[in-house]
């Protein structure tokens, strides 16, 4: 039987505890959440015109969201971890 440990190093941050994991995921997801919120506010307007009995609208719309360069990454050194320690050069 061949054993693989390819994914073990990728989940070491979970050993830092719930508080550190929460801080890490909040920092990781913040750019996406901001972009998603901006796209929801992207101007989806529809008419309020009344329809005949059984009538309905079919609408196709396209919207785009531009994410600023500053929101495309985050710096781990700016996060105040409780249990995790950053290793320089890693």
Q: What is the strand tally?
A: 0
Helix fraction bin: 25-40%
First and last CA, distance: 32 Å
Gyration radius, in Å: 22 Å
The average pLDDT value, as a whole number, equals 77
Q: Note the overall shape.
A: elongated
Note the main sheet.
none
- Tally of alpha and pi helices: 1
Content of β-strand: under 5%
> Structural class of the secondary elements?
mainly alpha
Low-confidence stretches: none
Succession of helices and strands: H
Pfam families: DUF6588 (PF20230)
Q: How does this structure look, described?
A:
The chain is 26% helix and 0% strand. It contains 1 helix and no strands. It has one helix at 18-40. The mean pLDDT is 77.
Compile the SSE list and pairings.
Blueprint: H1 18-40
Keywords:
single chain; 90 residues; mainly alpha; 1 helix; 26% helix
Write a brief structural summary.
With 90 residues, the chain is mainly alpha-helical.
């Amino acid at each position: 039987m061949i054993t693989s440990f390819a994914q073990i190093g990728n989940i070491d941050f979970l050993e830092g505890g719930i508080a550190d994991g929460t801080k890490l995921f909040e920092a990781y997801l913040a750019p996406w959440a901001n972009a998603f919120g901006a796209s929801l506010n992207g101007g989806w307007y529809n008419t309020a015109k009344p329809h005949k009995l059984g009538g309905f609208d079919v609408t196709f719309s396209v919207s785009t969201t531009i994410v600023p360069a500053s929101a495309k990454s985050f710096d781990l050194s700016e996060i105040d971890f409780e249990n995790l320690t950053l290793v320089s050069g890693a």
